[in-house]
Specification:
By secondary structure, the protein is of the alpha/beta class. The protein is 50% helix and 16% strand. It contains 12 helices and 8 strands. A 4-stranded parallel sheet has the order 3-2-1-8. It has a 4-stranded parallel sheet with strand order 4-5-6-7.
Length: 213
């Protein structure tokens, strides 16, 4: 098994992705720790977080011998992708498809999950070696998008991000989601109740997933 295949296999096994948007690197790290405590093991630290690479570096070192897989999200260019990979990111996620990011990820044998909203975007991404496309924005495209794309392209894997909730996760899974990305639903109570609420919300998603699979 290649390095890239190994990472993809672990990501699929973990299934749930936590999309982390912190106010600072420290905040992102604390949210990530809280999410992991709740049972979500795929951690996507977004570059909307100031000094996101510092958080990635700390998490990659701190959880090196665990089943946490640390990656970077909202990566908009190849330079940022390389910064993230050097910091320790094991996967790269973008809101859109950027060919140059795919090239840099292939160079480092790191999975690239670009946001795709049409069959054309999915096909263009696949042509550069992308194996998992992010369905984005998931809340607009809806679970049926995956099933519809799988009609003509059955072998592409797809992961929704945005719009995934406890109430609709079953629909995404029924329609063939390879994994699901969860964002603001994890931190919705953070201001009022602190980081322990993030752990509770993460656990609710893990419990729901275990009930459904």
């Amino acid at each position: 098994m290649t390095k890239k295949q190994g990472i993809l296999s672990q990501l699929k096994e973990n299934y749930l992705f936590a999309v982390i948007r912190g106010h600072s690197a420290e905040d992102a790290t604390k949210i990530s720790e809280a999410v992991y405590e709740g049972g979500i093991k795929n951690i996507e630290v977004t570059f909307t977080t100031p000094q996101a690479d510092e958080s990635i570096k700390k998490l990659a070192k701190q959880f090196a011998d665990t089943d946490m897989v640390v990656g970077a999200g909202t990566v908009m260019d190849a330079i940022t992708a390389r910064i993230a990979i050097i910091a320790g990111a094991e996967f790269i996620v973008s809101p859109n498809f950027v060919p140059e990011i795919s090239t840099i990820c292939n160079t480092y044998a790191v999975p690239y999950l670009p946001g795709c909203g049409t069959v054309t975007e999915v096909a263009n991404a696949m042509a550069t070696g992308v194996e998992v496309a992010k369905v984005f924005p998931g809340g607009i495209l809806g679970p049926a998008f995956i099933k519809n794309v799988h009609g003509p392209i059955p072998h592409v894997e797809m992961m929704p991000s945005g719009g995934v909730s406890l109430d609709n996760m079953d629909q995404w899974m029924k329609n063939g989601a390879w994994a699901v990305g969860i964002g603001s639903a994890l931190t919705k109570d953070l201001k009022e109740k602190g980081y322990s609420s993030v752990t509770e919300n993460a656990k609710a998603f893990v419990d729901k997933y275990n009930d459904l699979r």
